[in-house]
Amino acid sequence: MKKLLFICSMVALLAGAFTMQALANTDDNTLQTVIDEFEALDENVYTPATYRLAKMEYDRVKALIDDPNATADEINAAIDALNKRITALRVRNGSESLWKTYENYFEMGNIYSGPGNLDPSNTRGLLTSTHFNSLTAENHMKPSLLSFGGAGEEGTFRIYEGSDHVSDQFVREAQENGITVHGHVLVWHGQSPNWLNGGTNGDYTREQARENMERYIKTVVEHFDTYYPGVVTSWDVVNEAFVDGVSTIPEDANWKDYLRQGNQSGWYKAYSNGMVEGEDPSDFIYDAFVFARKYTDAKLFYNDFNMYQDGKSKLTAMMVKELNERYKKEYPEDPRQLIEGVGMQSHNYIMDTPPSSVENGILNLLEAGVDLIISELDLFAWFPWNAQPTGNSFAGYMDLRDRGIEHIIGSQGTEEQRNYWIDRGITNGSEIEVIQAEIFAEYFRIYKNYAASIDRVTFWGLNDMQSWRRGHNPLLWNSDFSPKDAFYAVSDPEGYLGVDPYYVKPVPASKVAEIILDYNDMKPAYRNGRNGGNFISDVARLMGPKKYFNNEPHSIKVGELELSNRAYRRAVFDFLKSHPVMEDKIIIMPPDTFFINSMK
User: Fold this and answer.
1) Which terminus in the chain has less CB density within 10 A, N or C?
2) DSSP of 127-170, one letter per residue?
3) pTM of the model
């Protein structure tokens, strides 16, 4: 027995000796310093994912120190990795209210999925009312939810005077909470009952479909305007009329050639049946907007996905410009544009929707001279869309923070697609969470830069588990509504990325006008009866060095900083557009970089 104890003691001593030898070959001061540095950190100061990643490396260092088989190289590598994770920590600079953070830029929106979504007694309701001042119905204002009936039937509406449909409850709750509503959607090839257009297997004529379209649009928009006045401020009039996957187009492309045709769209099919000379199946888009303009004063949008694609965003801009020009000729007495904005759905993917593509899509669409909405924003973590490692069901759901290397392998697609993250050295979901947050931050830097032309940024959901693409973990909160790094990135994009914000110098109206006109290539001189002068200088003199324009001050105070007021610049822009001699010459509001004074 004594001999056995002696052997065990010697083994322990030898093991300890090997561990001491490994430690002796490390830099003891560096080792203790990095351990002390991490242990002194306050977890609550740093964003969840970046702290979690540092803690993983700390645990690895501690485990290696206690491992008799650990080599000096392994320990030194772990120390280096921990140092890097500590350096990469991001401070939690979360917004107390996202809509207040962005109130000088654009509205912040989210979705309404059912009763109780605005109830402050539950976590979802409290987060929604705290962070968002605009809502879009996820489903309850789509055609199949507001009416029903088969092909050849008159069609029955679920909304009427005194109705208490879920859409009524939604808009009423929004009204009571001072939240605006974006209507989604009036005319769509999907989720629409066949009584409207006969469906893709029907035989409606364009006249039948047109009559039903007018009846539907009139009934719906007048219902909400009458019983909840001023709440529904905008509508997606037409949704997803273009085909999928239009990444590029030839220079001579015609937007009408890229529409969903009769095998995909009942509207296109019906409008193809019974045409006379000069008519086209695409006319259903124009008619939809004309009817909407006839029956509501809400702002009218076209909405579609993959607008980051160069081809699709250019086609959409072509369509908007052509239909707006047609409307101006046919209804010259209406001072408003027919299509006043485009919704960029923005169901984006980490691996193929880079910020540069998003900005390019914005620039393409702004060429149409209309405003934008980022209408359905989320950011998917796996490729392709159906390759979620744990599937799309609630039963298989996992937060990103809980995903190890075995939980980030795609379930479908090619081997390259399934191993997308592993092939890039990613070993766990927390690393993906940081990448996702960084991309969200880059998006919001772009949105802020074009805020003069963006009405609203709407997230398509609150937490990952309740998302329509829950397997992709695409949103700002975890399943228990704890914030992900994405929340902190959206709250303070510059802070999360560790970059300097742009400080924008206040400028008088005349200077704003000069920059806008110059940007729109309005340089040619013209005679105005005063022996010379040019358009830019005359307009600048007209506007003068005003401190206020349309009751908007040209600057706002943010702490000690005096910044240019975007609402003021928008007021100047709107004035210029309405100037009698401007006509259609103003195409685009320049990005805020035109007003940059200096960087921090």
Assistant:
1) N
2) HHHHH-SEEEESSTTSHHHHEE--TTS--EES--TT---HHHHH
3) 0.85
